[in-house]
Fold:
Amino acid sequence: MKTGTLISGIFFLSLLIQPAQSGALDSLRINRIQVIGSHNSYKKAIEPNLYKALAAINPAAMHGLEYAHIPIPDQLDLGLRNLEIDVYADSSGGRYATPKGLSMAEAVEAYNADGIMNKPGFKVFHVPDIDFRSSCATLELCLRQLKQWSDKHPGHTPVFITLEAKDSEEERPDRTNPEKFTSKTFDMLDNCIRQSLGDGKLITPDKVRGRYATLNEAVLNDNWPLLKEAKGKFIFILDQKDRKRDMYVKGHPSLKNRVMFVNAEPATPEAATLIRNNPKDTENIKKLVRQGYIVRTRADADTRQARTNDYSSFVAACSSGAQIITTDYYLKSTFFDSDYQASFADGSYVRGNPVLKGIESH
Structure:
């Protein structure tokens, strides 16, 4: 991109994205704010020697994995208010302790030196055998970091956390096959979150549903909590559809007694939070936001926008009113030359929602 074009784009962006004073947001409901957060928030860089070996085979695929994040507490210190965590079940322990990628290339640093991957419990990383380095290798460790950070910053803006329960529909002999999620696994996942953070730190579907017959009815009637009531808390969203989403919902109509919201279909009893990965579907996202749903979208994906300094998806995400915008580039890339960086005009990551009535001036 030419320098003049880039400067013009940034100027347009600054006009579009006007920051709001944090104190002025306190009386808004949490669906009337907009936050920027990170995608695959736990991710560390792929082993350098392994990356080189795999990039020689499929450079395009590996380019999409060429990003990493600073530790989660540091992201929160910057002001990010959305995180994404991928979770793998490991009920017996040790399933992911010896990634097959380490047999292809020498590791720069020891893996699993503390033995934590040998213990039973949910593990956190991106792709088995390939993209397995994580700043918090287990869900318990990630949640402990969240709890410690939150306790030190009790008045923080609520943090949205999208959580993906990773498994696979097919098994292959040449890779480490993930353990399948079951209803029991999801019960264990809920319990892990509750026990690690405490109910007082959570905004759950039950709390949003309140006196309404369904969660969807509550949301359409603007029953989200006020920002000032939600401070110091976390909101978990299960980013699944079809089999795993249905398994999580089964036996819990309107997500009764569940910890997480789900990526539900609009107008269904469980509908409250929606995932829409294409930010350029702007009008549809605006419609859903105006109905009362909280929508998560993406500013960039697979390093493509950062490599070309393309802000068009980020601009679309901001103008759509999607309350949660994820990016891999709240900081500039350290892997390739690029000026691409996603934040609101003043460098912040929280503002009033530009779409919803009554806060257009923000």
